[in-house]
Amino acid sequence: MNELTSHNVSAQDMSAFQTYQKKFLLSETFRRNYSTSNGLIYYQGRIVVPIKHQDDVLKLYHDHILFGGHFGVTVTFRNIASIYYWPKLQHSITKYIQTCVQCQLKKAHRPPQHGLLTLLPVAEGRWLDISMDFVTGFPPTTNNLDMILVVVDRFSKRAHFIATRKTLNAAQLLDPLFRYVFAYHGFPRTITSDRDVRITADKYQELTKRLGIKSTTSTANYPQTDGQTERTIQTLNRMLKAYTPTDIDNWNKYLPLIEFVYNSTPNRTLEETPFEIDLGYIPNEPVIKTDNDINARNFSAVDLARRLKAITLQAKEHLEAAQIEMEVNNNKRRKPLILNIGVLRPGSQRCTFQQRSPHEGTTNICCSTFACQKKKYMATHMNWI
Fold this sequence. Notes:
By secondary structure, the chain is an alpha/beta fold. It contains 14 helices and 13 strands. Among the domains are: 15-106, Endonuclease III, domain 1, CATH 1.10.340.70; 129-284, 2-Layer Sandwich (Nucleotidyltransferase, domain 5), CATH 3.30.420. It is 43% helix and 14% strand. The strands form four sheets. Strands 7-6-5-8-9 form a five-stranded mixed beta sheet, sandwiched between helices. The chain has a four-stranded mixed beta sheet with strand order 1-2-3-4. Helix 4 (73-81) crosses helix 5 and helix 7 packs parallel to helix 9. The longest helix is centred in the last third of the chain and has 31 residues, at 301-331. Residues 1-6, 289-294 and 347-385 have low confidence and may be disordered.
């Protein structure tokens, strides 16, 4: 390690280096963990980052459009810790994210919800059950694109961000679905979405029915049904706001980059990237390392098939475990919401009952059950103020 003393380093880095040097000479355990090569110090195969360059690494893996994405502590730590190391790494990441202006301005704060959390069944395989939603409010691009269609596979969590127009109608909606989803992944069994006018249109419902696709929609009082897509949209909006403030008229050009970053970022539920769950490997990223490792397409056909099967079983286990954990953790702060006949839902002043309830003969009604029946009986049993 003596050759490193000749490098021009700051006083803090020199002090840290001298500490490392002393430990290297006196401790066998330290020598097993640390090594040097080409003027760099390695800890368990990871590069030890000098203090003056730690902010550069944090900026690259948190702020950069390709390697960052303004994700939280867990994702950022996982991306950095696989390559770099310095003492109190997670503390540094937490402190950096807490002082990130973009994160403080763009990330949403979520109020508490009423009633217990009820989840959809776990998806059985890749692209068999998908969810989709529309994101509007964008300025028109040079080719008049002003809306994004977001499609998410409920199993692998892989997403497609498709730039389109708000003038898209129910019949035209199937065109981008065929082009960007069905052509690559096949036809799903179910499509979950909100009650957008394009989704509830008779033409769309008839077309999906003829294709053998079941269209399921959420209700105003039960938005958790489409919560996965809504959460993906929050991440998409945050990344667009972070990376297109000076080029807002060409936001559509950033969608492929953002989609790649999103799908190559480890999912906290699955503990793998959506690419790896869906494809069995992680596609090549832009080269920034000094090694020549290629992490894609290096499996034989048999090995890849076995790997995909193992990933499928592991992903299903993680999804089921995450659902149980989510229900338990969320329901600790919630109470069962039971609606007695004639009593308004807490926080709602929009409706009052005028006549007999559609659930006459029962003493109470679960909020989600009532929400499913609301539209059918709304005209005759409810007066909207």
